[in-house]
Amino acid sequence: MNISLRAQSMPESPIRKLAKYADAAKRAGVHVYHLNIGQPDIATPPQAIEAVKNFNQDILSYSPSQGLKSLRTKMVSYYADYGIDLSPDEIIITSGGSEAIMFAYMSCLNPGDEIIVTDPSYANYMAFAISCGAVVKSVKTKIEDGFKLPPVEEFEKQITEKTRAILICNPNNPTGYLYTKQEMRQIRDLVKKYKLYLISDEVYREFIYTKSPYISACHLEGIEENVILVDSVSKRYSECGIRIGALITKNKAVREAVMKFCQARLSPPLFGQVVAEASLSTPEEYMLEVYDEYLTRRNFLIDKLNQIPGVFAPAPTGAFYVMVQLPVDDVERFCKWCLTDFSYPIKEADSDETHPATVMMAPGTGFYTDPEDGRHQVRMAYVLNKTDLANAMIVLRKALEAYAEISKQG
Length: 410
Prior knowledge:
By secondary structure, this protein is α/β, with parallel strands linked by helices. It is built from 13 helices and 13 strands.
């Protein structure tokens, strides 16, 4: 018996594909510094934890397919603080931002239709397109200039009669780049000219490290009916496990189409929605502390990376990821080798004892439509505390030195 062609063409996640090697390293007593995945180590807001503890319903029932009205109503106020005017009916709660992307694809794209992404991009954008039978076209950005958008002509080269949408992530995962007002207007003009959907993933809007303003796709005049906003509470409140996201659009036809898929999957997670609703009451002090912590980590990590010979890391202007160029022949081989064949003794805090340690990174090949473009890059997430980041950089430097010696020996 054979599995489907769709399953055969589905790529492995560059973020998780090496997990089995990390697990084996841990079983062997090696400490693994996880730079591969955007799982924050920052505590979830107390309001969220209390909401779970105080939950007192007798029956854990289905919620409405669109999501709890009380949550959607509270989200209206949240978006209003960012100058985004919505009604509860324009918000659909999803099982994470991932489901929002999938439902947007399935509602707006037919098999064979094309969607344009920036390269590199979040790997699941491509994986979900394969699931829907859509074709991904890419517009390349370069690490040398910080991954800023290329001229508009590069987008137009990719537009055909099958093009249906442009997808952006702002601030960007995996590059950490924040699109400028001019770049967002450039995208708006393309969307309007060619009558395209604009799917905009904006889950990292709280984490912007520049004086440039955050420009949401919902701020762009003249394409209100074209915009589909994707959101999530996972990174904002350190709540990756509750799987609550949102699909937001003023386009009634799109909402009605999305709701068919929502009804088919019955309802989004009940507990997750309770937690998300409580999290919207998180005081500003919490968010400011989290922001300052990520800014400190960013500055520290970028400085340490660029001190390692042969390594180049442009400073991200948003989110908590950075694409890093490494002096290796093949990052997939190097990242696997770090987990299977390498460790370096790291001194434990407040002790003279050491423990073997290594690093886990996400190979850059999985973030490009053409894997050859990412053969010398990895994505790192600075979601570890400064002590762990410092140790991870020691391990990385030593790993690169050891790998270079092995490469010389053939």
